[in-house]
Amino acid sequence: MATPDPDAERVLADALPVHLGSAAGRSTILVGAGVVNLVSALTLLRAGHDVLVCDAAPDPRDGAPWTAYGCTRGGGDGRMFTLTEADSYNSRARTADGASNDLLTRPVSDGGWRLARSLSDTELRWAEEFHQLPPWLADNYNADIFEVNRRAGDGWTRLLASDPDLFETTGYRDVILRLYSDEEYYRWHVARNEKVGAIRTVLTPNQVRDGYPALADACGDGTVAGGLEVVGFTVNIHEFVEKLVGLLEAEGARFRWGTTVSGIAWASPGVADGVVVDGEVLRAPNIVVSPGAYGREVLRGTASHELVQGMLGVWLTVPNVEPMLDHSVKISREGHRAEETNVTLGTGEHGEPVLVCGAGYGWTGADPTNIDGAELDVLFDALEDTILRFFPKAHAAAVRSGLLERSRRHCVRPWTATCLGVFETIPMPDGGALVVTGGHNTGGFAQSPAIAEAVLAALVGGKDPMHTRYHPSRPGLFSR
Ligand SMILES: Cc1cc2nc3c(=O)[nH]c(=O)nc-3n(C[C@H](O)[C@H](O)[C@H](O)COP(=O)(O)OP(=O)(O)OC[C@H]3O[C@@H](n4cnc5c(N)ncnc54)[C@H](O)[C@@H]3O)c2cc1C
């Protein structure tokens, strides 16, 4: 585990201005009700803030069509915490000889990640930044991302102790089984997971077969090269956010659903005055904007504007047939189009046990609706192939019942070219602060308690390493 280097911290702190709020104004408007801002709302509420949350989408408890929601409520009903959940992905853009390639601009059907129908010059520059990040810098950023995962793990432990009901009634499952289809990649991951203190047990394919009869077919035909039981958990995220919204309301938070914030109102250049809804300025001493991959308009005028772009993933659900899987699983297939697949134990419409499977990387550019339908189908085919290889009986049952086709969903993760999250602080007139958070790639759920702590600290004048490590100008320090 990387320990913070005080010299590096000082360099970042000297170079990157952070505007901390004063503790005076304990009233906060939050824009966005995805999991990141909902966990921040709970933290602020319990620190004595008066909280108003605005979201363009409907109340998650209304059960509107999945397409009406953001990433958290819009995708499949499972999310995972592991110590490597948010990660650095820049090395994927390198060929074996270390040269950078065109991963983001090559279509999914050609082995790349491009899902966008067309791309602007700004988007192409963003892709270039992703491709060209030097390996040593990506490693440096990766250590910081993993440190946030670790801190978030402590936050989840605290939340589990203070609010067990939030987890017990939303499908909480402890310990993740990681599976690998390639031996070399498996060995690399054993070392990596060991480094972050994630490993509980290292398993040979035979041990996986004996411990997990649901995987006997995949272990028997050589699909599984090795397994690991690691620290982590899953929840059924739809129930989790519904429950969390109820808890927030019960503790005094107010919500305005179906409320689109069109932008930030500026008191003067660089000083935020409020947010604009239906042409009116909503004001509060503090504002926290966490719009996921949908922040292009609302973040105009901030340093975070266009730093966060969309990376779509696809979801399919299959029945958890006998012999049933009893742990959630993360599957790694190096070089496959569904390279990393999370399989969460869940419950179907009629209370039946299901496996909620999510995977794939499809870059949409800055517009999360910029999706080529034919390329999207290729991602669904890739996820289906993984389900077929690892859970052939469940796949066959899902095809027969029509569940495989019915359960097709996608959602778009907020992503940055450096894979670092974004944490921006902007002064407000009466000593408060406007905070922007986002871009946590594959780990927005996983990192949310650590983000919440950093948000609270920023609003009450406290320091948090995330303020500089996820500072939107940090990547610029290197290119100066
Ligand atoms: C296939 C797949 C699997 C994943 N698995 C995991 C996992 O196992 N673990 C994990 O940690 N992460 C996982 N992720 C990533 C995770 O889902 C996201 O990082 C997370 O949901 C993002 O949450 P958010 O709150 O940042 O954004 P969102 O959930 O998108 O929320 C943003 C909200 O802001 C609202 N909004 C946006 N603009 C405005 C506006 N102008 N006015 C008002 N409201 C606005 C939107 O309506 C939306 O509700 C996965 C993603 C995918 C695609």
TrEMBL record:
GO-annotated cellular components: cytoplasm
Domain FAD dependent oxidoreductase per the UniProt entry, residue ranges: 31-455
Highest taxon in the source lineage: Bacteria
Database matches in InterPro entries: FAD-dep_OxRdtase, FAD/NAD-bd_sf
Secretion signal span: none
Protein's recorded name: D-amino-acid dehydrogenase
Organism: Herbihabitans rhizosphaerae
